[in-house]
Amino acid sequence: MPPRVVVLDYGSGNLRSAQRAMERTGADVTVTSDPHAALDADGLVVPGVGAFSSCMAGLKAAKGDRIIGRRIAGGRPVLGICVGMQVLFDTGVESTDPRTEEEEVTEGCGEWPGTVERLDAPVLPHMGWNTVRPPEDTQLFAGITPEDRFYFVHSYAVRRWEMAPLNPRIAPPRVTWADHGGPFVAAVENGPLWATQFHPEKSGDTGARILANWVATL
């Protein structure tokens, strides 16, 4: 039987493009907001586009933060994409009025420490194709070359990895980096919780390989 994957519908994200991309891996894919289906699936995809605060509000309304937490506690795979990755961190800080430098601070899911903040770059949003720098022991980027590029569209990201090693017997998270006005976190592999800042569903054959690598672990 193919692995069962749920794309979580909480009112944000490119749901159908994510569904089609996941189906090309051979997975049995459902788009739903049903918490039971999301908990029972072999893999859960959490997409996201737009503002951190809006995505977090939709996620909480759909009890998505609880679903993610329960799956992680049970060692059940979760894949966050774009803002679906960002909401996994402690906090999102967004500019509300560039003229006054007012900021809105939103609490995230808190699966990883860290703050999602505005990129320090002369051109925003960061939109287009970029290379990434995965660690040597990556599973997510298996088969990917240094020349391969991925599609990004965002103005905010995690610019510092803040999770300290907790136990020398446990493998630390594998963090992949990219650059736009400075380094930012492009992907994370941490036990059952994986995430990408880029859009694998919009990244052609290289993105398809990323999704296939994730599905192969289910």
TrEMBL record:
It is found in: Cytoplasm. Gene3D superfamilies: 3.40.50.880. Signal peptide: none annotated. It comes from Nocardiopsis algeriensis. Keywords: Amino-acid biosynthesis, Cytoplasm, Glutamine amidotransferase, Glycosyltransferase, Histidine biosynthesis, Hydrolase, Lyase, Transferase. The gene is hisH. The lineage of its organism: Bacteria, Bacillati, Actinomycetota, Actinomycetes, Streptosporangiales. Pathway: Amino-acid biosynthesis; L-histidine biosynthesis; L-histidine from 5-phospho-alpha-D-ribose 1-diphosphate: step 5/9. This is Imidazole glycerol phosphate synthase subunit HisH. GO terms for cellular component: cytoplasm. GO terms for biological process: L-histidine biosynthetic process.
